[in-house]
Amino acid sequence: MANIYKLRKNMDTFIETLxxxxxxxxxxxxxxxxxxxxxxxxxNYLLERSGNGDQLQLKWELRCPHCYRTLDITIExxxxxxxxxxxxxxxxxxxxxxxxxxxxxxxYKAFIxxxxxxxxxxxxxxxxxxxGQPQSLQDILIDGLLSEKAIDKLTSQSPCFLxxxxxxxxxxxxxxxxxxxxxxxxxxxxxxxGNNAIQADNVVQSQNITKEESxxxxxxxxxEIKKISEQSQREQAEYNAEQLKEAVENKDKSKAQKLLGFLxxxxxxxxxxxxxxxxxxxxx
Length: 284
Prior knowledge:
The chain has 284 residues and is of the alpha+beta class. It is built from eleven helices and six strands. The chain folds into two domains: 2-171, no CATH class; 187-279, no CATH class. The strands form two sheets. A four-stranded antiparallel β-sheet has the order 1-6-2-3. A two-stranded antiparallel ribbon has the order 4-5. Helix 2 (28-35) packs across helix 3.
C-alpha cells in the first residue's frame, strides 16, 4: 500500500508544481509520462480533481482531422455541426477530433503560490515536460475504465455527443467503438483459418501468415506514417501503430480493432492497413 500512497503524493506534487508555473493547459499524457503510469490512470486521477471548486478544470480541444490545427477550446455542452479550418477543409466533428486538456483553477493557483511563499524550504525542481502530448478520449480509454467518480466528473464537463461514447466505453468493458459486433468465438469450438468466410456471430476467422509477411505489412505501415508532416500527429500515429503491433502479437483483437480505427483516421485506408486487417481477421 505504501507505493499507492507515494503515487498519490507524487500526483498531488505534480499538480502543485504546475500551479506555480505559467503553463496554461496540460494533457493527461504529461502526468502519465512523469509517473510512468497509463494514460487512463492519469486521466482518472485528474478527472477526480476537476470541476467547480476543484483544483482543475476540464476543457476540450477541437482539432482539424486534416491538418491537426487546434480550432477551438471549449467547455460548452453543445458544439457546431460543421467547422471550417484555415487549411481549406470543412468537416463534421467526430469524437476522435476532441482532445481532453486540463487547466489549473485560478483560485487554486493563487492559493498554492501563497502557500509556497510561506514555506522556508526551496520547492522541488519541476518535471521537464509539463504539458505532454494531446490524446483523443478514445486513445486514452483503450487501456482501461474510469472510476464512477471520474465518470461523473467527465460527463458533467463534456459536450453532449461525447457522453454516448463515454457510456459505451464503460459498459462494453472498454470498447469505445459504437455499434461494433464483436467476433469472439467459433461454432462448436472449431478453429477456422485460411480463406474460410462463415458469415455468422461468434466466429473467429484468420489467415495463416508467416512472421516475414507480418513484419513486411507493419514496415509498410510505419513508412506511410513517416509521410505525415505534422510532428505531433505523426508521433501519435507511430504510438498507435506500435500498440497495434503489440495487440496483434498478443491476439488482443478488441484493442487491435480500436487502433485500426484511429490509424485509419490518421492515414486513411492505405494498403498496409488493409493487409493487416485481412491477415488478422479484423475489419477496417
